[in-house]
Design a protein that fits this description.
The protein is built from 6 helices and 8 strands, in the order βββαββαβαααβαβ. By secondary structure, it is of the alpha/beta class.
């Protein structure tokens, strides 16, 4: 039986805007098993970004319980959540979030620098392996300003993979790309899910 990686129990998230309370999430409950490929769809303003921030340990719910790989997140401190995020979650964003004028390898190594248990040599080898996995083995020393949008998104995916995450969170990851590149990136993400068994959550 598959292990549950993400479990949300009656998650609510309220924001105070002046005198008004905005109910961004109103009792969301679901679970995602290891190795699943899940798409979360919704119109603008439906709470997708709020949900993503909670799933990615960037925010905590007002009430309800969130378990990530069996670990309760809601009562954690900000620094505890940061460590958990770095160890368990890989992010792929719409705008790539790469450092400009920095090589593909350096961009992919970046999140591993926050993990003291990963040596410099292991960091580099993991970065190279991740870039090869996204078919960028011939672009290791290319800087982000020398790449196409599709190549930059592949670097962003490699950066997420290098941390060996339990969950890959993709936030509108293809909305800035043309249809052909979108298709190749989505195919790549599906291949990662199938071949590596990484749980994938796509927000769109």
């Amino acid at each position: 039986m598959s292990k549950t990686v993400i479990e949300l129990q009656n998650i609510k998230r309220n924001f105070q805007v002046g005198d008004e309370t905005v109910h961004a999430l109103r009792g969301v409950s679901f679970s995602i098993n290891e190795g699943e490929f899940v798409t979360i769809m919704g119109t603008s303003g439906s709470g997708k970004s709020t949900l993503l921030n909670i799933l990615g340990c960037l925010d905590t719910p007002t009430t309800g319980e969130y378990l990530l790989d069996g670990i309760s997140v809601r009562t954690m401190s900000k620094s505890q959540r940061a460590v958990l995020r770095n160890r368990k979650i890989g992010f792929v964003f719409q705008n790539y979030n790469l450092l400009p004028k920095t090589t593909a390898i350096e961009n992919v190594e970046l999140p591993l620098m926050y993990n003291s248990s990963v040596s410099a040599s292991e960091r580099r080898s993991r970065a190279i392996e991740a870039l090869k996995a996204v078919s960028l083995g011939d672009r290791l020393e290319h800087k982000s300003n020398q790449m196409s949008g599709g190549q930059m998104q592949r670097v962003a995916i490699a950066r997420a993979l290098a941390t060996e995450p339990k969950v890959l969170l993709c936030d509108e990851a293809t909305s800035a790309l043309d249809p052909n590149t979108t298709h190749s990136i989505l195919t790549l993400i599906k291949d990662i899910n199938r071949k590596l068994g990484i749980t994938v959550v796509v927000i769109t």
